Amino acid sequence: MSSKEQRAKEKRITDGVKEILEFRGFQIKNTKEDDDFLDIYADKISEEKEKITAIARFPKNPQIGVKLIRLLGKLQEEEKLGEALLIAESPLTHYAKKESVKLGIEIISSNNPLFNIFDHNIVRQHIKLKSPEIKYFLERYQIEKNQIPKILESDAAVKAIQAKPGDVIKIVRNPDMGENGSYYRVVIKSTSRLRLVETGTIKKKTTRKIPPKKPKETPEKPVEDKPKTAPSKTADKTKKVPSKTADKTKKVPSKTAAKTKKVPSKTAAKPKKTPSKTATKSKATTSKKSAK
């Protein structure tokens, strides 16, 4: 990039940042520039009638890391600055974003519109409500804050009015476009996936920690205490289905047993029915002797 193009780019960014600061109620105080940074200082009087000084830093090196974020945070602490803005040309790393949130430094991407977006006739006016106004709004409609429709913190209009998660915004419709009335939104974090965070009167959703399951200790029980309702499969088989051999021995007696029981042997039947010849002869002789 040539020096002429670089100057035009710096002027465009400087004018845009000045316009954003003026929209937020700041008055441009002075501008400092060196080989590494272009700093813009601005002042404003808060509602509590306190003076607030803000700094907007545009680094000449497009690569922004944790070291640069900490350097701006140290400058903010030393000079007791109320707000610190950093204009970034390239995306920040994960650790740089985390450090900027920790130090309360607002990151403005150079890809975002660096001008007052509410000057456009299509963009509706966004107004951040104060605490009494929020209370009146909730009591009037008898609702809770988590029942209000959501708007992300990363929205350009939300960034312009410096709304934070938990703030309620009143969006006024444009009558020039045939719209009337207004509607309300509550700001949530961009990474929260439409879940509210603990800010103001929003209740924190506590996640219950589930302890790890411990292995069940089975106490040793005597044999007598075993449940009788659920016997083992092998016991059911032996109890319900008797063996085939047992059925045969029980129901069908053996052939030999049937023969011995029903048909008596010939040797056992002979002495009862037909007496022997010797016995008959002896009886006959005895009868003849007695007759003589």
In short:
This protein has 292 residues and is α/β, with parallel strands linked by helices. Helices cover 37% and strands 18% of the residues.
Any overview of this molecule?
The chain has helices at about 5-25, 65-80, 95-105, 130-140, 155-160, 235-240, 245-250, 255-260, 265-275, 275-290, and strands at about 25-35, 35-45, 50-60, 85-90, 105-110, 125-130, 150, 170, 180-190. About 35% of the residues lie in helices and about 20% in strands. The protein is α/β, with parallel strands linked by helices. It contains ten helices and nine strands. Among the domains are: about 5-115, RNA polymerase, Rpb5, N-terminal domain (Dna-directed Rna Polymerases I, Ii, And Iii 27 Kd Polypeptide, Chain: A, domain 1), CATH 3.40.1340.10; about 120-190, RPB5-like RNA polymerase subunit (Eukaryotic RPB6 RNA polymerase subunit, Alpha-Beta Complex), CATH 3.90.940. The N and C termini lie far apart (about 170 Å).
Q: What is the fold's blueprint, element by element?
A:
Layout: H1 3-23, E1 27-33, E2 37-45, E3 51-59, H2 66-78, E4 83-88, H3 94-103, E5 106-109, E6 125-128, H4 131-141, E7 150-152, H5 156-160, E8 168-172, E9 182-188, H6 233-240, H7 244-251, H8 255-262, H9 266-273, H10 277-291
Parallel strand pairs: 3-4, 4-5, 7-9
Antiparallel strand pairs: 1-2, 2-3, 6-8, 8-9
Helix pairs in contact: 2-3
